[in-house]
Amino acid sequence: MFAEENGLHGDPRIKAISDAIRVVPHFPKPGIMFQDITTLLLDQKAFKYTVDIFVDRYKEKKISVVAGVEARGFIFGPPIALAIGAKFVPLRKPRKLPGEVISEAYVLEYGTDCLEMHVGAVQAGESVLIVDDLVATGGTLSAAIRLLGKELEVHCSSSSTIILDQINNIYIFEHVFLERVGADVVECACVIGLPQVKGNWTLNGVPLYVLVEPRLNDLGHFGDGGFV
Ligand SMILES: O=P(O)(O)OC[C@H]1O[C@H](OP(=O)(O)OP(=O)(O)O)[C@H](O)[C@@H]1O
Ligand SMILES: Nc1ncnc2[nH]cnc12
């Protein structure tokens, strides 16, 4: 949900945050109204308000992991993690992490991308908050949730789990993680969210908390192409 609809209605910090985000039309391609948070980072008050709102929301929730999505989740995630007493775990684009990784692919407007995290960085059962700057289609956050969350079990009996792979091989396991961490993903937190995410405030069953809507251009709309 939007912060304004959840206890922060009329809070001047929300307007300050929104005002500090710069809109760059037609970046990185024609029709995209790019929401540039680098100007928010230049505004010490607005940056602090952003972190403070998230910290107030999550400090009593017993969250032990803040997972930040590359690249801009690396900016907002660490100060939140430090303030709420959680560890910070980077979810990186492919081939950036030096250790053993687990991966999750996701679909972009054109082609696919992938998020990776180090094996062992998060344990099954830990409570995780996922942080990014912006949610557009939700594809990136959904991949992060799949990576960290609990596995999808195809069929369970009392003592085992049966998995069918894509070519119908059958595997029977006592415990299955399917390269999923098995953590409890408590919420996804984003600074900016599309208006159309209103009314659909969960991704893969995980609640989504957003501070501000995207800023409009001078003509009062999001541009022809909207968002990437
Ligand atoms: O909701 P979605 O449609 O998945 O889009 C949101 C994602 O897009 C942006 O990252 P981008 O993919 O541009 O990567 P970058 O931050 O590494 O440039 C943004 O920071 C989110 O991570
Ligand atoms: N319009 C936008 N501005 C900034 N980052 C984005 N990621 C996806 N769409 C975006």
From TrEMBL:
Signal peptide: none annotated. Keywords: Cytoplasm, Glycosyltransferase, Purine salvage, Transferase. GO terms for molecular function: adenine phosphoribosyltransferase activity. Pathway: Purine metabolism; AMP biosynthesis via salvage pathway; AMP from adenine: step 1/1. One of its GO terms (biological process) is adenine salvage. InterPro entries: Ade_phspho_trans, Adenine_PRTase, PRTase-like, PRTase_dom. Residues 57-150 form the Phosphoribosyltransferase domain. It comes from the Eukaryota. The keyword DNA-binding does not apply. It is found in: Cytoplasm. Its EC number is 2.4.2.7. Its main location: cytoplasm. SUPFAM superfamilies: PRTase-like. It catalyses: AMP + diphosphate = 5-phospho-alpha-D-ribose 1-diphosphate + adenine. Homodimer. Belongs to the purine/pyrimidine phosphoribosyltransferase family. This is adenine phosphoribosyltransferase. It comes from Cynara cardunculus var. scolymus (Globe artichoke). The lineage of its organism: Eukaryota, Viridiplantae, Streptophyta, Embryophyta, Tracheophyta.
